[in-house]
Amino acid sequence: MPTTPPPIVLASASPARLALLRRAGLDPRVLVSGVDEDAIEEALGPQATPSEVALALGQAKCRAVAALPETDGALVIGCDSVLEFEGRPLGKPDTPEEAVARWYAMRGRSGVLLTGHWLIDRATGKEAGEVAATTVHFGDPSDEEILAYVATGEPLRVAGAFTIDGLGGAFVERLEGDHSNVIGLSNPLLRKLMAEVGLNFTAYWGSAAE
Question: Among 20, 42, 107, 159, which is 20 to 30 Å from 84 by CA?
Fold first, then answer.
């Protein structure tokens, strides 16, 4: 008889990440970490690369949730995304004005969407982490289109002030790399990291894998 894999806990409030995992055949429980992202970035200092920032944030979220007693025996997955643009990590804009300014700067140019992934198997104590990177080539929306997009509120809720699976997808011309990473979580990288801690991605498909 095959061994039942440990339950999965997603250390993220992102509905997009939850939907990605469910479409991939995984059905996690969601527990939000509540970590102070600004404090983590400040502790890293200005010398930290955008990739290091993304990984540190994903790791911090994962470890905070893995410390909760209700995650005993579970596989905890923590992720955080930033957009590397002009060498700087951009998370969620703080204000509509900041979102507009970002889009004025980003249109017609490219950035790299980085998602730090961190896994902890609470049953074994094994951990694994890595960053997924996808190059995003932005279109050239007009000032009017940018203002209309920011007015929807969507850019204020997501890293880099854009989505690929929502309204912002109309302003993205093409991607180089994993599409799911831009939504919030790279399923190919997740499968690899699960293997590193000794777990089989397809074991979560239940009878479909038998």
Answer: 20
Q: Is residue 3 part of a domain?
A: no
Q: What share of the chain is helix, strand, coil (3-state, %, to 5)?
A: 45, 25, 35
147 is in which domain, residue-wise? 8-209
CB distance 138 to 109 below 8 Å = yes
Is there a domain that residue 92 lies in? yes
- How many whole angstroms separate alpha carbon 140 and alpha carbon 39? 34
Number of domains within the chain? 1
Q: 25 with 96: CB under 8 angstroms?
A: no
Q: 24: which DSSP letter?
A: T
| CATH number of the CATH domain containing 196 | 3.90.950.10
Output DSSP code: residue 207.
G
Give CA–CA dist 200/134, Å, rounded: 25
Active site positions, annotated: 80
In a domain, 1, yes or no: no
How many CA atoms lie less than 13 Å away from 187 in the CB half-sphere? 16
Gyration radius of the chain's alpha carbons: 18
Structural domain includes residue 2:
no
